[in-house]
Amino acid sequence: MKSIKKKVAALLDGTGLVPIKNECVEEVLKKSHFVFTEEAVDEESFVEFTRRVLDKALHNEKIIKSIKQCIIFSVPKRHIAMFGIEEFEPLSGYLSNWAEGEAEYIWGIYEIPDFKRMKITIVVNSLLA
Fold this sequence. Notes:
38% of the residues lie in helices and 26% in strands. By secondary structure, the protein is α+β, with helices and mostly antiparallel strands. It is globular.
C-alpha cells in the first residue's frame, strides 16, 4: 500500500487545476484497492484518449464493482488551455455508466511540466479479493 500512496502522492505533486485532497485519495486506499493507469499514444487527441481509456475501464470488473474511485488526469503543461466541454463528455458518460446508488467519485486534472503524453490513473476501492 505504501508504494501506491507514493505513486499517488507523486501525481498530486503537479499543479492541480482541479485538485484532489489527499484525504480523499486515502479514503479510497483505506482497505483493498486497485489502480488502473493508461497513457496516450502518439497523435491521440484528449477526447479519443479519454474515450478509449474510460471505455476500457468500464470493462474492468474491479472498477465496475467499486463504490468509490479517484480519477486523475495528468497532462503536459499548457495542454489544458485547449480544453472545452467536448473534452469532458467522455468523463460524463463514464460516470453515468459506472455510478450507481451510493457510488462516490472525485477527479482532478494536473498539469505536469515534464510530461510528454497524457495519462489517466483511476484508483478504486476494490471489493474483489
